[in-house]
Design goal:
The protein is α/β, with parallel strands linked by helices. The protein folds into 5 domains: 114 residues; 99 residues; 62 residues; 249 residues, Rossmann fold; 196 residues, Rossmann fold (3-Layer(aba) Sandwich). 56% of the residues lie in helices and 10% in strands. The strands form 3 sheets. A 9-stranded mixed beta sheet has the order 3-4-5-2-1-6-7-10-11, sandwiched between helices. Strand 4 and strand 5 form a beta hairpin. It starts with a helix and ends with a helix. It comes from Trema orientale (Charcoal tree).
Length: 965
């Protein structure tokens, strides 16, 4: 309030005051007060030392006729003398002034008055200094007004005093007129006295007018301030009223909250009553069914009783007929006829029996001939199968079997028990799934390793290679080490390539936080692989095992920093060192194991070091059979680090920290592993065609768009697939009820089961359930997910979120939302990742929302559709390539499978959600058909694997055509 008053005063009051002559508080002198402007003028006229000297001299010298000049400076600047009225009474004034003593006395009075005036001017100088120092005192206006009134009174008194002095001066003139001798002197004296009198009168009049105008201005300012003060007081009263209203509203709000809690309790009771009512209705229906059955049984009993009565009548009639028959039997003729008839019938039966025996004999003969023919065919097939056993692969053994055999052969090689050539030949036989090596394994099952080795070595005579040899070097693999979609891609693509007849192996770090229960036959090899780092060699343990039927090598560095014993996969301060160490150790393993892969496939920045390491260090050492394929799953994460850190893994910093190699495009003293992999790889891919186009722009490329455009000929986007074996509602063991596109009843039962598990309301079978399974990071549109939660509630639906955030403030924000809805009937947030719960949410959801700001591929929309959940997605990256709007007439009807929006804002989410809810509620049959359609879409790895297979084959063919190894 004080601030508002001072602001108003400065903006309005001072603007008026500063325009007036007077702008300060002037303390009164002992005699009178003068206006500042007049004082300044007089100060200029009397401030010179010369004039002051003249005044001092005049005060000591007598005045003569020749000495006094009315036009002199002293006369022009003299002020009005202050005379004693008692000395100027008519009785004491002489009739004439004849002596010089009287003249000198009058002149001395004038000079004394001038000296007083000089002192007053000096006082005025001090007053002016005080005035300039006190201009900021705004709150003293009322004091200054009182002072101004006092000055007005003093000025009035001085005016009266001057008028009295004028009357006395006139009397002196009249008294001096009789004598001629003193005429000129008297005239000069009159002029000398009249001039300061008139000047003083004028100045006092001007000062009085200015003081009056200033007083009026001050009064106006005071009135304005009073009005503002009244306005402020009214504002204070309004604030007090608003505070009272706020308090009353808060009390009302508390009452409403208490009522709401009571109503929620009532609603919970009502839900219980509804369940009890539902149970009672079911019991009544069961009783009604029992009653209907009892009624039917009673009706049947009545019918049977009626039939019994009719039968009784018939029995009576039959008894009467029997009596008649007995009468007929007594007749011999009739009996004879009856016997003849029976004999004829017997003969006919014998003829028919004989003909049937003949037919049966012919059928038996035909059957025996057919059995003999079948036996001959079976024997020939057995002979053919024996002949083919040595040439055709064995298909009835699981992939884990062949992966175990492969790891066993590699273990023998690394442990120096077989030669490199023998290992290569045996590995190719496993790759071919040769029946001979299968039989050898079965024959040696009970033998020890020394006895089994000769049996296997005898098989190394004539193997043939059926396809490509691919090795994936990655930081993730589902389900043993998974953070995002990378792990799913490595596993899904490898399994699909394996099924297509290619030999596939995976190399992973051995994390301490892996899902070890998902690894079969895990064991450590009796060998140590040494790899270079930071100027010395470090040992690495090598573990082998099978995951999802795939052979996997796990590298455990024996480094003092315990690179992969951190309790998490990523997020460490030395990630650059950890994964550059792993990349070199992985290549060292391939070199020492004598492997000759056709393709080495590395993923993301964590293993992007493989490409420059391979060509700079390992190809010259003999590991030169492979072409390098690099896949970037998300260009937002590039692993940029100071160039000097690249030297730790043995790479030449000076050669690689160049604009055309690994130097980051934004900082010349830093290296970019992603850029290095793009430059040094033979094949570069990303995870969807649309994302491949987006990252070639300045906005989407995160600084690498120029590099990608330069290497565009080897850059392609291939849409990821999903593992349709792991994500299959018809065989999913995590589900309460399994179901398929042809039988959707199980989906409704899974929805009800999830509601019970999460304590959501089961009221309203047609209430849609919206699901979201995601990492809560800005890329995924967390602000749009938050908005979708509240908008779903407004639309009358239910929302379930599963996921967590590595960003602390986002995690805290969603923890607050989860706490807000922890007991809500329709909202539930589970801020962690739970594999089994994710399957349940996919199967229970009617809709699935993916509002990503950017999405390289995205697997959740594919998995959701696999389980019959309709996606609501933003058109970006892989979402644009896999979700097509049901209302988009430019898309063929059979491909429309969801609801999309383009602008990443709340309005876009609202539009898509509202359309989905309306479609769900208003077109139940069309929705059912849409669910069945999306469940039959093929998002498997088959088509994606065929595209990778084509890229692999072309790269290998180009290398062979160029005469490379």
């Amino acid at each position: 309030m004080a601030m508002k008053l001072s602001t108003l005063f400065l903006s309005q009051g001072l603007s008026g005051l500063n325009s007036k002559p007077y702008n300060g508080r002037l303390p009164l002198s002992s005699s009178y007060r003068l206006f500042p402007a007049s004082c300044k003028m007089r100060q200029r006229n009397l401030s010179s030392p010369h004039k002051r000297q003249q005044l001092k001299k005049a005060s000591h010298e007598p005045l003569t006729n020749g000495d006094f000049d009315p036009n002199s400076d002293s006369a022009s600047t003299a002020s009005v003398p202050i005379l004693n009225q008692e000395s100027m009474s008519k009785d004491e004034v002489p009739n004439s002034i004849t002596t010089e003593h009287d003249d000198a006395k009058d002149l001395s009075d004038v000079l004394l008055l001038n000296q007083a005036r000089v002192r007053a001017l000096e006082d005025l100088e001090k007053i002016l200094a005080e005035k300039e120092s006190l201009q900021g005192e705004i709150n003293t206006l009322e004091m200054r007004l009182a002072e101004t009134d006092a000055r007005i009174k003093v000025a009035t008194q001085e005016k009266i005093h001057v008028e009295l002095l004028g009357d006395q001066l006139q009397q002196l003139r009249n008294e001096l007129t009789p004598k001629d001798s003193g005429e000129s002197q008297n005239n000069r004296l009159n002029e000398q006295v009249s001039l300061p009198h008139e000047s003083g009168m004028t100045n006092l009049t001007m000062e009085l007018d200015s003081l009056r105008s200033e007083n009026l201005s001050l009064k106006n300012d005071i009135e304005k301030l009073k009005q503002e003060l009244c306005h402020v007081k009214r504002t204070d009263e309004r604030v007090i009223m608003l505070e009272d209203e706020r308090a009353s509203l808060e009390s009302a709000l508390k009452d409403l909250e208490s009522k709401l809690s009571v109503s929620q309790e009532d609603v919970s009771k009502l839900s219980t009553l509804k369940v009890e009512y539902k149970n009672l209705v079911e019991k009544v229906e069961n009783l009604q069914v029992l009653l209907d059955k009892a009624t039917k049984q009673a009706d049947q009993a009545i019918t049977v009783l009626q039939q019994n009565q009719e039968l009784r009548k018939k029995v009576d009639k039959l008894e009467e007929s029997l009596e008649e028959v007995n009468v007929y039997k007594l007749s011999s003729e009739k009996m004879q006829q009856y016997n003849d008839l029976m004999q004829q019938k017997i003969k006919l039966m014998e003829d028919r029996l004989q003909r049937s025996d003949e037919d049966i004999h012919s059928y038996v003969q035909l059957y025996q001939e057919s059995v003999q023919e079948f036996q001959d065919t079976l024997n020939s097939l057995k002979e053919e199968s024996k002949k083919r056993a040595l040439d055709e692969p064995v298909d009835d053994m699981p992939w884990e079997f062949w992966s175990r055999l492969l790891l066993m052969v590699d273990g023998w090689l690394l442990e120096k028990k077989i030669s490199t050539n023998d290992a290569k030949l045996l590995r190719e036989m496993v790759w071919k799934r040769d029946g001979r090596i299968c039989n050898a394994y079965m024959a040696c099952k009970e033998k020890n390793e020394r006895e089994a080795l000769p049996t296997f070595l005898r098989l190394t005579s004539s193997p043939t290679s059926p396809g490509l040899y691919v090795i994936h070097i990655a930081a993730e693999m589902a389900p043993v080490a998974k953070v995002g979609g990378l792990g799913d891609v490595v596993t899904g693509l490898s399994k699909s390539l394996q099924k297509r007849g290619h030999l596939v192996e995976i190399v992973l770090p051995k994390y301490d936080c892996m899902q070890y229960d998902q690894i079969r036959d895990l064991r450590v090899l009796d060998t140590v692989v040494e790899s270079y780092f930071d100027g010395r060699l470090y040992k690495n343990k090598v573990w082998v095992g099978t995951v999802e039927g795939l052979p996997v090598y796990f590298i455990e560095p024996l480094h003092p920093d315990k690179f992969f014993w951190r309790g998490q996969l990523y997020g460490e301060h030395d990630d650059f060192k950890r994964f550059s160490f792993f990349s070199r150790a992985a290549l060292e393993l391939l070199l020492q194991a004598g492997k000759k892969p056709d393709i080495i496939h590395c993923h993301d920045w964590q293993t992007a070091f493989v490409a420059p390491l391979y060509w700079d260090l390992y190809a010259p050492k003999g590991l030169n059979s492979a072409r390098i394929c690099f896949t970037c799953h998300n260009f937002e994460y590039q692993g940029i680090a100071p160039a000097s850190e690249l030297a730790s893994c043995g790479l030449d910093v000076d050669q690689l920290n160049r604009p055309d190699r690994m130097q980051d495009n934004s900082a010349h003293d830093r290296v970019n592993p992603i850029k290095g992999a793009v430059v040094f790889s033979n094949i570069v891919t990303t995870v969807s065609p649309t994302y491949a186009q987006e990252v070639r722009t300045a906005e989407g490329g995160r600084g690498l768009h120029s590099t990608l455009n330069f290497h565009s000929k080897k850059f392609a986007g291939i849409l990821n697939g999903i593992d349709t074996d792991a994500w299959n509602p018809a065989t999913d063991d995590f589900l309460k009820v399994q179901y398929s596109a042809n039988d959707l009843q199980g989906k409704a039962e899974n929805k009800e089961a999830l509601r019970r598990m999460l304590r959501l309301s089961s009221a309203g079978v047609r209430k849609p359930l919206v699901g979201s399974i995601t990492r809560l990071v800005p890329q995924k549109g967390v602000h749009l997910i938050r908005h979708a939660i509240y908008r779903t509630l407004e639309l009358g639906g239910q929302f379930v979120l599963l996921g967590s955030s590595p960003v602390p403030h986002i995690q805290r924000e969603f923890e607050g939302i989860a706490s807000q809805f922890q007991n809500h009937d329709d909202i539930r947030l589970i801020l962690k990742y739970d594999e089994s719960l994710s399957h349940s949410i996919y199967s229970a959801s009617d809709m699935f929302i993916i509002p990503s700001i950017f999405e390289p591929c995205g697997l959740t929309q594919m998995i959701a559709m696999r389980y019959g959940s309709i996606p609501i997605a933003r058109k970006t990256g892989g979402l644009h390539d896999s979700v097509f709007d049901v209302d988009d007439d430019t898309i063929p009807l059979r491909f429309r499978n969801g609801f999309t929006f383009l602008t990443p804002d709340e309005q876009g989410v609202n539009n898509a959600l509202e359309r989905a809810f309306n479609y769900y509620r208003n077109n139940p049959e069309s929705w059912q058909q849409l669910v069945q359609n999306v469940m039959t879409l093929d998002f498997s790895w088959d088509s994606s694997a065929s595209l990778y297979e084509e890229l692999y084959s072309k790269a290998v063919a180009r290398a062979k055509a160029a005469g490379r190894p």
